[in-house]
Predict the 3D structure of the following.
Amino acid sequence: MEKILLSISGMHCNSCAKIIETTLEEKEGVSSISVNYDSRKAFLEYDEKKTNLNEIKSEIDALGYKAS
């Protein structure tokens, strides 16, 4: 299991954080995710055999946010 902390830009409210969480919870390989609107951070654990960091960032970008 890989654990990462991402900075998320482009969020405007707590609903934005929830949208990212809900989307990534459904992604194969992501075992847990927590997005904090106040800190603009996302902590997640994923199985690197099923997904990778680039795919996760692409999912976030597709929602209209930017992960780094």
